[in-house]
Amino acid sequence: MEEMAGQMCIVCSQIKQEGITIVSQFVCEDCESEIVHTNAEDAKYQYFIHRLKQIAVTH
Questions:
Q1: pTM of the full structure
Q2: How far is CA 35 from CA 4, 16, 31, in A?
Q3: pLDDT at residue number 58
Q4: CA separation (Å) from 55 to 1, 9, 48?
Q5: 8 - beta bridge partners?
Protein backbone atom coordinates (compact mmCIF):
# COMPACT_ATOMS: atom_id res chain seq x y z
CA MET A 1 0.00 0.00 0.00
CA GLU A 2 1.33 3.45 -0.91
CA GLU A 3 1.79 5.88 1.99
CA MET A 4 0.83 9.50 1.38
CA ALA A 5 3.56 12.05 1.97
CA GLY A 6 2.66 14.72 4.50
CA GLN A 7 3.57 18.36 4.72
CA MET A 8 5.45 20.24 7.42
CA CYS A 9 3.23 22.41 9.60
CA ILE A 10 4.42 26.01 9.88
CA VAL A 11 3.29 26.09 13.53
CA CYS A 12 4.51 22.81 15.08
CA SER A 13 7.10 21.83 12.42
CA GLN A 14 5.80 18.26 12.34
CA ILE A 15 4.99 16.34 9.18
CA LYS A 16 1.23 15.81 8.98
CA GLN A 17 -1.19 14.74 6.27
CA GLU A 18 -4.34 16.59 7.32
CA GLY A 19 -4.66 20.36 7.54
CA ILE A 20 -5.12 23.56 5.58
CA THR A 21 -2.91 25.57 3.27
CA ILE A 22 -2.82 29.33 3.77
CA VAL A 23 -1.26 31.04 0.77
CA SER A 24 1.54 28.49 0.33
CA GLN A 25 2.07 27.39 3.95
CA PHE A 26 0.57 24.32 5.61
CA VAL A 27 -1.10 24.34 9.06
CA CYS A 28 -1.98 20.89 10.41
CA GLU A 29 -5.50 20.30 11.67
CA ASP A 30 -4.26 19.89 15.27
CA CYS A 31 -2.66 23.36 15.25
CA GLU A 32 -5.59 24.85 13.36
CA SER A 33 -7.96 23.60 16.05
CA GLU A 34 -5.73 24.83 18.87
CA ILE A 35 -5.40 28.28 17.24
CA VAL A 36 -9.17 28.60 16.83
CA HIS A 37 -9.85 27.60 20.44
CA THR A 38 -7.09 29.66 22.10
CA ASN A 39 -8.21 32.81 23.89
CA ALA A 40 -6.49 36.03 22.70
CA GLU A 41 -5.32 36.70 26.28
CA ASP A 42 -3.53 33.34 26.46
CA ALA A 43 0.27 33.55 26.16
CA LYS A 44 0.22 30.80 23.54
CA TYR A 45 -1.88 33.05 21.27
CA GLN A 46 1.12 35.32 20.74
CA TYR A 47 3.20 32.27 19.77
CA PHE A 48 0.61 31.39 17.12
CA ILE A 49 0.64 34.96 15.80
CA HIS A 50 4.45 34.86 15.57
CA ARG A 51 4.43 31.55 13.68
CA LEU A 52 1.64 32.64 11.30
CA LYS A 53 3.54 35.84 10.46
CA GLN A 54 6.01 33.54 8.72
CA ILE A 55 3.41 33.15 5.97
CA ALA A 56 3.90 36.78 4.93
CA VAL A 57 7.70 36.43 5.10
CA THR A 58 7.84 33.31 2.93
CA HIS A 59 5.27 34.50 0.40
A1: 0.81
A2: 25, 16, 6
A3: 66
A4: 34, 11, 12
A5: 15
Q: What is the mean pLDDT of each run of 10 residues along the chain (59 residues)?
A: 79 96 94 96 94 80
Q: How far apart are CA 9 and CA 17, in angstroms?
A: 9
Euclidean distance between CA atoms 54 and 56, whole angstroms: 5
**Distant-in-sequence contacts of 12-15, Cβ < 8 A, 24+ apart:** none
Nearest Cα neighbor of 38 from 26, 52, 48 is 48
Q: Which amino acid, one-letter code, is at 11? A: V
- Cα-Cα-Cα-Cα dihedral sign, residues 36, 38, 39, 42: negative
